[in-house]
Amino acid sequence: MAENVILRFDDVTFEYEDRKPVLDEVSFSVRKDAKITLMGQNGAGKSTIFKLIKGELNPTKGKVHITDNATIGTAAQMIDKKDFDLTVEEYFGKAFVAVPGNIKSQISKVMDAVNLTIPTDRKIGDLSGGQQARILLAYALIQNPDILLLDEPTNNLDKEGIDHLITFLVMYNKTVIVISHDADFLNCFTEGVVYLDVFTKKIETYVGDYYSVVEEIQKRIDREIKKNAQLEKEIQDNKDKVNFFSNKGGKMRRLASKLREEISELEENKVDVRREDKTIREFSIPTQGIVGDIVTIKSVKVIKNHEPVAKDVNIILRQKDRLLISGPNGIGKSTLLRSLTNNTSEGAVILKDTVVGYYSQDFTTLDYDQTVIESLSSILANGIDMQEMRAVAAGFLIKGDLMGVKVSNLSEGQKGLLSFARLVLMRPGLLVMDEPTNHINFRHIPIIAKAINDYEGALIVISHMPEFVKEIKFNQELDLGKL
């Protein structure tokens, strides 16, 4: 059924300058209208695959075929900071070589598709994280692509937003390729998986829903481990016999030589068992130890019909208090945290001299022009030396090879881990976290949840991930949607 193939990789090898290959003679195809998950460990080359499909990168060897010049639209993970000052209409205009006369109606159509209603003269930077996530998808859709590439599309979306996206993708009658760590989301519409292995640099393809494929991969790993264990036993038995027979003369020595050949053959028959991502080390976030009313919130602004409305509340946070802020996308959750940490909120104050550790969903706390080591060094608390700083960073998989890299060149997942390393080094009295699981590999999340739950300072969290939230014992909740 080659005529139905819309995308094909033929023996594609790719390597960045001065680096080992990311992909090694990779071949796979995607048929028209398929819904495919791109799966693999951190650094396996998922984002590289997307860039090769879009033509932003060229293969070192091999060929990427796009059938009949099929068009490609991409919903990136995050909106570029340089676009924050654009209005919604100006931002969508960037999708065209020449802005069409009916752009307003086209914007209205794609905004309806992603279930978003906002004025088109709003600045992109003023939108909530969830609204920006929907804008990214709408930006891809307005190009009417034959192949839609989605990179972590559920980041920042509330449950309603995720459910709407699933419905849209199930009904969407074109090709979709998705990178996501959200297993439940993927299982709702995935028809197959393209799996990249970071160690072999090869690709495997599977047919079936996401959970079935994950189960199939695990069964294969179990078979590989069992086979290798059997071969190891045979190899050891033969080695014992070789040691015994090689000291004998004549025929026994020849038998020992034959056994050595069998050992070599058995070694060759061992398979490379798939090794999954390393997880970060368990960690703790030390607290400043400040006492008193660390945070006092008397009023908050809630967004109603695109306008802020002040609402009275009465919240006080001291040491070990944990506040969960909830509510739908666009209600004003992130705006509340930004105004609190920037000390611009009229109805909320932070106790003087409190060290505030702020995890921003869009990494605005990071200076993209700094190197990693500069970013870490810039926030060291008293008494922490460079050796301890490097040890903390290594626990978050940030090692020597990354220290000289600019923050702007890190992956989104690495920026997230860098942000956590900085929080550990800061020793904050108040921890403010806006969607701290975005971009983070799911294997790290239980470790992060435990560290946050064990933190003994005051804590404020926004998160749309229920399995993360349930691991933290909150004693207060502020639901902006109910005010």
Automatic annotation (TrEMBL):
GO molecular function, one term: ATP hydrolysis activity
Classification via InterPro entries: AAA+_ATPase, ABC_transporter-like_ATP-bd, ABCF, P-loop_NTPase
Keywords assigned by UniProt, alphabetized: ATP-binding, Coiled coil, Nucleotide-binding, Repeat
Ranges for domain ABC transporter: 7-223, 295-481
Coiled-coil portions: 214-276
PROSITE patterns, alphabetized: ABC_TRANSPORTER_2
PANTHER family associated with the record: ATP-BINDING CASSETTE SUB-FAMILY F MEMBER 1, ATP-BINDING TRANSPORT PROTEIN-RELATED
Protein name: ABC transporter domain-containing protein
